[in-house]
Amino acid sequence: MSHEVVVIEGDGIGREVVPAAIEVLEALPVGFEFVEAEAGDATKESTGEALPAETYELAADADATLFGAAGETAADVILPLREAVDSFVNVRPAKAYPGVDALRPETDVVFLRENTEGVYSGHEDRLSDDLSTLTRVVTSSASRELAEYACEFVGDGRGPAGDSEEGFTVAHKANVMRETDGRFREEVLAVAEERGVDADEELMDAFATKLPLDPTQYGVIVCPNLAGDVLSDLAAGLVGGLGLLPSANVGHDNALFEPVHGTAPDIAGEGIANPTAAVLSAAMLVEYLGHVEEGRRVRDAVEGVLSDGPRTGDLGGDATTDEVTAAIVDRL
Ligand code: ATP
Ligand code: MG
């Protein structure tokens, strides 16, 4: 059986790192049918639309999508694409690797961020010349769905510790936002209890201090939308290098995978972008499609190359994207 994977390179270094990731996927004993689709700044210039309906439909109907990056049109592309795959959780691992300079080399955490509501639900109003408001939406159903995912995630040993006994931490601000975060907290903890999964909690401000001081205290962290956005970026700062961080937007029977970095206009077109984040996003895609062992092999190959080289310029080396990709494929 082959998996239909929609491939959207987008703009800038998306056009370099996504082909690198595809090369790695093609080295695996897994059947893929890659379907190329267009989106981003260049697409808007040529067609008038950053995200053509055809691309949206392809992503919605595929088994999974691999996305690179989009420039100024990023929000017009990625927000609808997340909707196309019906994504309710954003998965953001932040792991430091031997051989890569990191503020906190012992960091190994995974954020599971609510991906549909909170303050990003889009309900903003300008009520007068002086007053603007934002409606924060939290539902029990979305909170529980995220928590169910978190329980499965740790239960399958997919947390950093690989240990299903480890449980997760829920970060929130329910002491102030008693109604919205109160509901979120209550539902998430209730699901953990029902499922027999260990869950502890942190106030998100305290967490923002404790994480950089000692990241080893944490493994899987479950957050509302905005908190997850900010806190996962904080964790990214601990591990050194935007070129390393993958992410997944997971839905009910579809998902979209993308590096955390953008189009990197300063180095685009030079063939020197670090393909690691895109390759690790592809590894998450492989695991999502059920090939857990192959995903692990890709990650091991990436780790080997990060530790022994070759390395791209962002990591202090002078290798090209192609050289790093070839080294990863060699190890596979
Ligand atoms: P965009 O406008 O698309 O968000 P940006 O420049 O604001 O682009 P990023 O693309 O995330 O943001 O890049 C931030 C910095 O990190 C840039 O200096 C870029 O060169 C560097 N960078 C990001 N990704 C990579 C990568 N894969 N390899 C090497 N350097 C990278
Ligand atoms: Mg940017």
Automatic annotation (TrEMBL):
KW Oxidoreductase (keyword) present: yes
One GO molecular-function entry: isocitrate dehydrogenase (NAD+) activity
Record-level GO BP terms: isocitrate metabolic process; tricarboxylic acid cycle
InterPro entries documented for this protein: IsoPropMal-DH-like_dom (IPR024084)
The keyword Acyltransferase belongs to this UniProt entry's keyword annotation: no
Domain (Isopropylmalate dehydrogenase-like) ranges: 4-328
Keywords, ordered alphabetically: Oxidoreductase
Signal peptide from the UniProt entry: none
Entry-linked Gene3D superfamilies: Isopropylmalate Dehydrogenase (3.40.718.10)
Family affiliation: Belongs to the isocitrate and isopropylmalate dehydrogenases family.
Protein name (record): 3-isopropylmalate dehydrogenase
Organism: Halorubrum lipolyticum DSM 21995
Lineage start: Archaea, Methanobacteriati, Methanobacteriota, Stenosarchaea group, Halobacteria
